Write a sequence for this structure.
C-alpha cells in the first residue's frame, strides 16, 4: 500500500496526473488500516512466545512506528490539508519508506535467519559477516557427512524458518547439532538411538492435519526423508561422520537423492505417468486402460465389456498406442484376421501378454506373432480357425511362457510336437474335451455400447 | 509456547475462524472444481476407479471367493493330524487348549475329548498334499492349489467372524473387500456390476445378511449385487408387463435430470451414485439374461461341474456363473456355500456338504485354467473359521459334532500369482494352535489387495474425521504364498 501512496504522490506532481491528488487521503487511509491490522496480528503472534533476542523486538518496534507514521500521515492528509501539502507530504513518505524497509529487513531475519542476506555472497563477504566457509559440494555418497551434508541441510530447508536463533518456536533452535540436542521448552526432541521416543521423529511422521504435526502448515517431509531421520536417530544421532563408515540399511538410494547425487526417482516425476491424451483417447474408443503400475507408465489395455465386437475405428485408435502396450486383452471382441492386419501387431513391440480367446482368428494371423520379441503369454483358446498348420509357425516363440489352445482346431499330436520344440512353454490344450471339435460360438447380447 | 485460553486466540486460529485465510478459500474452490468434474461438465474416466492403476503391478484382475459359510472343519478335510486319531477319546491336553477362546456352545462341557478325522486321508499330486477322501475332486487338482493352513481370527461366532473376514471389522457397517476393490480399481465391464454375490446350499443354517457385501461409507454403487436362482437372477430386473424398454429409458432420463437439479443444490455425491445404479440396472436388464443363459455351454463343460449344474441356484451352477461373470470382467465375486455349521451330526453332515462343493469347486479351477483365466484370476476357498479337534456333545453318542475354532484353519487359493502346489504354514499336532507362519485375516486381506495391485495401506477413504482402510492399522503381506 505504502508504495502505491509513494507512486501516487510522485505522479501527482506532474500536471497530467494531478487528479490523483484527490485519492491520496484514501490511499493513506487504506495503508494505515492494513498496517494497524498487521501490527495487531503480529503482536498476537509475538505474545505466543518463541521469540527472543533483539531481532523480534526490533521488528515489532519498527512495525509499530511505521503504523503510527502512516496513521498520522493519513490524519494529516484529511484534517490539515494545507499543512500536509506544504510540510508533511515529503517527510512522511521518506520516513514511511525507511521504516517499512527496516521492519521488512528484521522480519526477513526472523524467518530466514540473520545471515540470509550474505549467505550466498562470495566467501570474502561471508567471512566479513562472520560466517564459516560453505560446505564443499558433495560428490560421493561415501564421503558425505551424515549431519553437515544430510540431516543439517534437511532441517535447514524444512524447519529453521520457525526454529532459528531469533524465532525459536517452542523454544527450539534447529540451526546446529548442539542446539538440536538441547531441545525446546518441552525437553529434548531427539533421544539418540531411540527414534520411537524422539518427539522430532513423532511429529514429522504424523498426518499433516494432526495438531502436533511438523512442519506446521507446510508440506510434510517425504517418506524417504522421514526414513533417513529415523535411521540417523537410531544410529545415535551423531553430530558428524562420513556415510561410508555407517550402515546404510538400504537407504543408500534415498540418501543419494537427498544429497542431490541422483535425481528424484522417476515415480514422483511426470515421466512415470502415461500420456493422458492417449489414455483418454483409448477410453473414448471403449477400452479399459490402466498403467502397468505407478512406476511403469506402459499400458494394460482391455476391451471394456467383453462380448461386443470392436469396430475398425476403435482398432485404429488402439493402433496409435501400439508401442506403449504391454498387456492387450481382446477377448470375446469378435477379432478376426482382417482386424489383426489392421492393427499391425508388429508395431506392438513391447507386448508381453496377448489375449485373443473366443475371437475369430485363424492360422494366417499367427505368423506375425514371431515378430513380438517380448511375448510371454498368448491365449488363442476358442478360435476354431486355428489348426496344426498355423501352430507350427509359433515354434519360434522361444521366450513364451504360456500358450492356450483349448477349443481350437489344433490336434493333440501337434501340441505334443510343439511341446518338444518349446519345452519351457506351458501349453494348455484343455482338460475337458469334446468328442468332436464342435465350436459353438458364445452367445452375447446385441451391441449395446453407447446406448 | 505460552498457555492459551479461549479469550486469547493465536494468530493462526483467528485467521482460520474469520475466514480471512486465503488457503481456506482456495480449498473451497478446489472442492468446487471436483464437484464440477463429478457433475459431468468434464467426464472423468469412471471405469478406472480411484487408483487408475494400483501402485503395484497387479498379479490378478479378479477374485472369486468360495466361502464355506458356517465353517468347514479343517480337521476332517485338509489339515491331517494322525495324533488326533491315536488319541481319539482322550482329553485335549490343557496346554494345547488353554490359551484359546472357545464359543459358549461347548465351553460348558465337562470334557473335551479329541476325535480324529471322520474320513481317511491320503497324499495327492506331485506336491503330496494331504486331502481327505471326502474331497476326491479337489484331491485331483492339488498341484494347482496353494494351501494356507494357518489362517486365524479372533472371532468365535459366525456373524462377527464373517463380517470381519469380508469387511475387516466385526460389527456391520464397514465396506466389504469387494467394494474396496471396486472403489479402487473400477470396472472392466460397463454392463455388469463389479462385485457379485451368490448363495447356495441348505438355507436353515447360519444366516448371512447383505451388510456383509455392503459398501459401508463408500459410494453406494460399489456394494455387492446379489444374483439369485429365481427366474429373475437379480431382483426386479425385468420390466413389468406392458412396459416398453423405451419407456424405461425415458423415465430414467427424466429421473437423471431431477437428480442433477438436486445435486446442484445439495452437492451430495450419493445422488450421483444412485443415478449410477439406475443406469447399471438398466444395462443389466440386457446383460444379465445373457450371462444367466447357459445354453451355449457344451455338455462336456457342464459335466465337469457335476449333475447339480443343470439346476439353477445350486452351488455348482453358481460356480459356473462365477466363471461366466469372471470371463466378462466382474472383479470380485463371493459364492457362499451354506450349511457347514456342524455342531452335531458331523459324520453325516460333512460328507454331504463336501459332495455339494467338491466337484464344482475343482471344476471351476480346471475350467478357468484351460481358458487361461487362472493366470489373472484368484480363486479362494475357505470359511470364516475352522472347527475344534475336540468334539461337541458326547463321545459315546454318534451324533457328535465340532464347535467353532478361530485359532487355526485351512484355506486354499489358486491362480492369481500364488504358488501352485505350496503348503503354507503349520499347525501343532492337534490342528489347534499355529506352529509356524500364522496368517491373520488382516494379513489375508492385505495379501488379496496386493495381488490385485493395491497397497492396502494406501487405499483409504476419509469419513468421520479419519482415514479408514480395509485392514485398519494391521495387515502384513504374506509374501511366502506369492510366486
Amino acid at each position: 500500500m505504502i508504495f502505491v501512496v509513494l507512486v501516487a504522490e510522485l505522479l501527482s506532481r506532474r500536471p497530467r496526473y494531478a487528479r490523483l491528488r484527490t485519492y491520496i487521503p484514501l490511499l493513506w487511509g487504506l495503508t494505515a488500516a492494513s498496517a494497524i491490522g498487521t501490527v495487531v496480528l503480529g503482536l498476537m503472534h509475538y505474545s505466543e512466545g518463541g521469540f527472543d533476542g533483539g531481532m523480534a523486538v526490533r521488528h515489532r518496534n519498527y512495525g509499530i512506528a511505521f503504523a503510527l507514521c502512516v496513521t498520522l500521515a493519513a490524519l494529516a492528509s484529511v484534517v490539515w490539508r494545507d499543512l500536509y501539502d506544504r510540510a508533511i507530504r515529503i517527510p512522511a513518505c521518506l520516513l514511511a519508506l525507511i521504516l517499512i524497509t527496516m521492519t521488512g529487513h528484521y522480519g526477513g531475519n526472523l524467518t530466514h535467519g540473520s545471515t540470509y542476506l550474505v549467505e550466498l555472497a562470495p566467501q570474502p563477504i561471508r567471512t566479513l559477516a562472520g560466517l564459516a566457509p560453505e560446505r564443499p559440494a558433495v560428490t560421493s555418497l561415501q564421503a558425505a557427512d551424515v549431519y553437515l551434508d544430510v540431516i543439517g541441510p534437511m532441517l535447514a530447508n524444512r524447519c529453521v524458518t520457525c526454529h532459528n536463533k531469533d524465532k525459536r518456536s517452542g523454544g527450539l533452535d534447529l540451526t546446529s547439532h548442539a542446539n538440536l540436542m538441547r531441545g525446546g521448552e518441552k525437553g529434548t526432541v531427539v533421544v539418540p538411538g531411540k527414534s520411537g521416543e524422539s518427539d522430532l521423529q513423532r511429529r514429522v511422521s504424523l498426518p499433516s492435519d494432526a495438531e502436533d504435526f511438523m512442519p506446521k502448515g507446510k508440506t510434510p517431509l517425504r517418506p524417504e526423508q522421514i526414513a533417513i531421520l529415523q535411521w540417523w536417530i537410531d544410529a545415535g544421532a551423531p553430530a558428524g561422520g562420513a556415510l561410508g563408515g555407517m550402515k546404510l540399511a538400504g537407504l543408500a538410494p534415498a540418501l543419494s537423492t537427498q544429497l542431490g547425487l541422483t535425481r528424484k526417482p522417476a515415480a514422483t516425476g511426470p515421466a512415470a505417468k502415461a500420456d493422458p491424451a492417449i489414455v483418454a483417447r483409448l477410453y473414448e474408443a471403449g477400452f479399459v486402460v490402466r498403467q502397468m503400475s505407478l512406476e511403469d507408465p506402459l499400458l494394460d489395455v482391455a476391451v471394456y465389456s467383453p462380448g461386443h465386437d470392436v469396430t475398425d475405428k476403435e482398432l485404429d485408435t488402439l493402433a496409435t498406442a501400439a508401442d506403449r502396450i504391454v498387456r492387450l486383452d481382446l477377448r470375446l471382441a469378435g477379432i478376426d484376421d482382417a482386424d489383426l492386419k489392421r492393427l499391425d501387431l508388429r508395431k506392438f513391440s513391447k507386448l508381453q501378454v496377448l489375449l485373443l480367446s473366443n475371437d475369430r482368428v485363424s492360422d494366417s494371423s499367427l505368423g506375425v506373432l514371431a515378430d513380438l520379441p517380448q511375448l510371454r503369454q498368448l491365449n488363442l483358446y476358442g478360435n476354431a480357425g486355428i489348426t496344426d498348420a498355423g501352430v507350427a509357425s509359433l515354434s519360434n516363440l522361444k521366450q513364451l511362457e504360456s500358450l492356450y489352445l483349448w477349443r481350437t482346431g489344433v490336434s493333440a499330436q501337434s501340441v505334443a510336437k510343439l511341446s518338444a520344440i518349446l519345452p519351457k512353454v506351458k501349453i494348455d490344450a484343455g482338460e475337458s474335451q469334446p468328442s468332436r471339435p464342435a465350436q459353438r460360438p458364445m452367445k452375447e447380447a446385441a451391441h449395446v455400447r453407447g446406448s | 509456547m505460552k498457555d492459551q485460553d479461549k479469550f486469547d486466540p493465536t494468530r493462526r486460529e483467528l485467521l482460520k475462524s474469520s475466514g480471512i485465510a486465503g488457503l481456506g478459500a482456495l480449498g473451497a474452490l478446489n472442492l468446487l472444481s471436483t464437484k464440477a468434474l463429478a457433475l459431468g461438465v468434464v467426464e472423468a474416466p469412471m471405469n478406472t476407479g480411484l487408483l487408475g492403476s494400483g501402485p503395484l503391478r497387479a498379479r490378478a484382475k479378479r477374485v472369486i471367493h468360495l466361502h464355506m459359510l458356517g465353517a468347514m472343519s479343517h480337521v476332517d478335510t485338509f489339515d491331517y493330524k494322525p495324533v488326533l486319531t491315536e488319541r481319539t477319546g482322550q482329553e485335549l491336553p490343557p496346554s494345547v487348549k488353554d490359551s484359546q477362546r472357545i464359543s459358549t456352545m461347548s465351553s460348558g462341557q465337562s470334557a473335551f475329548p479329541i476325535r480324529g478325522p471322520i474320513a481317511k486321508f491320503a497324499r495327492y499330486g506331485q506336491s503330496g498334499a494331504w486331502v481327505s477322501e471326502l474331497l476326491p475332486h479337489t484331491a485331483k487338482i492339488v498341484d494347482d492349489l496353494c494351501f494356507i493352513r494357518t489362517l486365524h481370527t479372533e472371532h468365535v461366532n459366525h456373524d462377527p467372524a464373517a463380517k470381519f473376514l469380508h469387511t475387516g471389522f466385526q460389527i456391520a457397517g464397514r465396506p466389504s473387500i469387494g467394494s474396496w476393490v471396486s472403489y479402487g480399481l473400477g470396472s472392466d465391464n460397463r454392463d455388469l456390476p463389479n462385485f457379485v454375490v451368490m448363495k447356495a446350499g441348505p438355507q436353515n443354517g447360519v444366516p448371512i445378511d447383505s451388510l456383509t457385501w455392503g459398501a459401508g461409507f463408500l459410494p453406494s454403487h460399489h456394494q455387492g449385487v446379489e444374483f439369485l436362482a429365481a427366474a429373475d437372477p437379480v431382483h426386479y430386473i425385468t420390466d413389468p408387463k406392458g412396459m416398453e424398454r423405451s419407456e424405461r429409458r425415458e423415465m430414467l432420463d427424466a429421473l437423471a435430470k431431477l437428480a442433477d437439479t438436486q445435486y446442484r443444490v445439495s452437492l451430495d455425491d450419493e445422488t450421483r451414485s444412485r443415478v449410477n445404479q439406475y443406469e447399471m440396472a438398466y444395462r443389466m436388464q440386457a446383460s444379465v439374461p445373457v450371462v444367466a443363459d447357459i445354453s451355449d455351454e457344451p455338455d462336456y463343460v457342464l459335466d465337469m461341474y457335476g449333475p447339480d449344474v443343470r439346476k439353477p441356484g445350486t452351488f455348482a451352477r453358481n460356480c459356473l456363473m462365477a466363471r461366466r461373470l469372471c470371463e466378462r470382467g466382474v472383479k470380485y465375486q463371493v459364492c457362499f456355500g451354506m450349511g457347514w455349521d456342524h455342531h452335531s451330526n458331523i459324520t453325516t453332515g460333512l460328507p454331504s456338504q463336501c459332495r455339494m462343493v467338491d466337484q464344482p469347486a475343482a471344476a471351476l479351477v480346471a475350467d478357468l485354467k484351460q481358458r487361461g483365466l487362472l493366470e489373472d484370476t484368484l480363486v479362494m476357498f475357505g470359511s470364516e473359521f475352522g472347527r475344534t479337534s475336540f468334539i461337541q456333545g458326547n463321545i459315546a453318542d454318534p451324533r457328535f459334532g465340532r464347535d467353532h475354532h478361530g485359532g487355526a484353519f485351512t484355506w486354499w487359493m489358486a491362480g492369481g500369482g500364488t504358488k501352485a502346489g505350496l503348503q503354507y504354514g503349520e499347525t501343532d499336532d492337534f490342528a489347534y494352535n499355529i506352529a509356524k507362519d500364522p496368517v491373520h485375516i488382516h494379513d489375508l486381506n492385505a495379501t488379496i489387495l496386493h495381488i490385485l495391485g493395491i497397497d492396502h495401506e494406501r487405499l483409504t477413504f476419509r469419513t468421520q474425521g479419519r482415514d479408514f482402510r480395509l485392514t485398519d492399522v494391521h495387515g502384513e503381506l504374506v509374501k511366502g504364498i506369492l510366486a
Observations:
- Residues 376 and 400 of chain A are 4 Å apart (CA to CA).
